[in-house]
Every structure is written in C-alpha cells, then in structure tokens.
Amino acid sequence: MTSSNERSPNFRRRLFWLVGVVAVLFAIYSGGWFYLADRVKTEADKAVAALNGRGIEAGCANLTVSGYPLSFAVSCDNLAYQDDAKKIAASTGSFNAVAQITQPLTPVADVRGPLRTSVPGMPPLWIDWDKLNAAVKVSWPLPRRIALQAEGVSGQTDPADDSDPAELFYAAKAAGQLEPRNQDVLYTASFSDLEIDADAIGGRMLPALDGSGEATLKNGVALIAAPPKSLRGQAVDIARLDLSSGTARITVSGPVSVGADGLVDADLTVKLKDPKAVAAILAGAIPEHKSEIEQGFAGLAMLGNEPSMPLRIVKGKASLGFIPLGKIKPVD
C-alpha cells in the first residue's frame, strides 16, 4: 500500500505542472491580446491614411482598446467621414464595440447619436435615437451576419444648417440584418409606430405605420465589396414586403430587376387585407385622387377581405391585373 508520504510529492508535482501550464497559456493569451490591440490601432491608422491619400477625411477620434483580460473593447469619442470631391459627409457620436472572451467572434457595438449627414440633392439631416446596438457574427472572408437594432429613432433637418429645423419622422423601433447567402445577400428589416410628419410630405396625412420585409440582393456580395455607380443590371427577389396600420395591410412579393437599358421588369403579387381601410389611408394621403381610389377599392372589396392581384412591369410598362398603370422612366 502506498503511504500518504509517497502520494504527497506526486500531488505537489502535478499541481506544479498544472500551475505552470496555466501560467504559460495565460502568457500566450496576454501576448495575443496586446498584439491584437496594437494591430487594431495600426490598421486603423493605415485605413485613415489610405483615405486621406484619396482626398477623404475620416477618423475615429481618441481610439482606445481596453477590456484586458476578460474582454476586448474598441471605442472612439466620435466617428467622421468627409469626401469633398463627392460632397458627402457623415458623423456620429461615440462608438464602443466589445467582444467577450467567451464569444470572441460575436462583438456587440453601441453607437451614440446623432448621425449627421450631408449628401448632394438632399438637405443636411440630423438622425438621432435613444438606443442603437449592432451585432456581428465574424467569419472569413465575410461576416456571417450583421444586425442593427434601434429604439426611439427620429429624423429632422440639421439644426446647424437651419435655425428652424423641420421634423421628418419618428419610429418607436427599427431593425435590420444582412446575411451573405453564397454570392447573394439576404436583407431583413422591420419598424414599428413610424410617424411621418405631414410637412415632410407636402401636408399629406398618414397614420402610424408598421412594416417588415425580407429580400435577396442578387450578387450582393460583389456589390457590397465594390458598390456600383448605377442600378442598371441589378436584381432583387422580394420574399415579403409588408406595410400595415390597424386592420389595413399591403403585402408585396416577387422579383424585380433593372436591365442594362435602365428599364424595370417585375412580376409581383400584391395582397390586401381590409381593402376599405387601405382605401381610407390612401385617400387621406392622396386627396386629389380620393374618388378614383374609393371607386377602385370598392371593386376590390367585392373580391373579399383579403384579395390579391398581379402587378407586372415589362420593359417599364406597368399593369395591375388587366389595368394599365403607365410607364416607368428608365433608371440611372
């Protein structure tokens, strides 16, 4: 029988080796953490320098990396982008992204508003929110998923550009998600309690709206890597696009494409729920066509409470069932 005196040295030896292995692993982890922290700063500086070389000013003010040893956090006081050649500018408040040691490939980011934008052909905008979170499922060569969730989103013209800013919209919640599917990109989005200010749409009245949708952008991976200068040659497959208010609902689905000549082709199905309620909303939004809308939807109501009809566009010529709707101008 082995005595306790003989077992004790073996136990101490094993404990020593265990402590040693843990110490080595922790040293490797620490080295990797600080190497990655330095790499993030270096790559950020390179990216900013590359943009500056193209005449674009961009920055992540006061970039810091923290969280050692249980997490990895990257933060900035604000984000900014300005391209004077294209007259495009955008900026946000503070940015903070954190990846926990238990989920290193799933960082979560928090962005503070407002988002201020300046784009040719549009007034400078000021978009703010109560809460905005972004989550990324990291993979190679592309993320497996990018998701955004926001609460209390509002938009107005930029107060710095206009002493009397115009209110544009407010949404209680909004969300969006991108997922690569082979060479395509699946996009899903939703919003609730969207209120559009009447002055922003020429005094027209709309009730609070809810919406959701799912669509696939064909060849989306390549398009995101190198954004096209034109919509020509692009195609989208709409699995579902819903817009509702109360009992009224409009659902659209089907493929849409733009030819090399800029002409639109589409084979869509439009479904209505409670046509009379839909007609009331459209009549309020387009009062100059109130009588035509009421007459047309009265006929649809005869088909039931949830009628559906084909909406086809062939080389820019649109028709709803057998009713011609006119032509759509070529898209740039």
For the record, the count of structural domains works out to: 2
Reported for the largest beta sheet, the result is: 20 strands, antiparallel
Please indicate the percent range of residues in DSSP E strands (runs of 2 or more).
Answer: 35-45%
- Which structural class best describes the helix and strand composition? alpha+beta
Mean of all residue-level pLDDT scores: 89
H/E element string?
Answer: HEEEEEEEEEEEEEEHEEEHHEEE
* Beta strands, count: 20
Q: Please give the alpha-carbon distance between the first and last residues.
A: 90 Å
Provide a count of the helices.
4
Uncertain residue ranges: none
Indicate the overall shape. Answer: elongated
- The percent range for helix content is 10-25%
Q: What is the radius of gyration computed over CA atoms, rounded to a whole number of angstroms?
A: 27 Å
Structure, described:
This protein has helices at residues 4-53, 220-225, 275-285, 290-301; strands at residues 56-60, 64-66, 71-76, 79-83, 88-92, 95-100, 108-111, 115-118, 125-128, 131-137, 145-157, 167-181, 184-196, 209-217, 235-245, 248-258, 264-273, 308-314, 317-320, 323-327. It is of the alpha+beta class. The chain folds into 2 domains: 1-137, no CATH class; 166-332, no CATH class. It has a 20-stranded antiparallel sheet that branches. The model has no long low-confidence stretch (mean pLDDT 89).
Task: Describe this structure in a few short sentences.
This protein is α+β, with helices and mostly antiparallel strands and 332 residues long. Helices cover 24% and strands 44% of the residues.
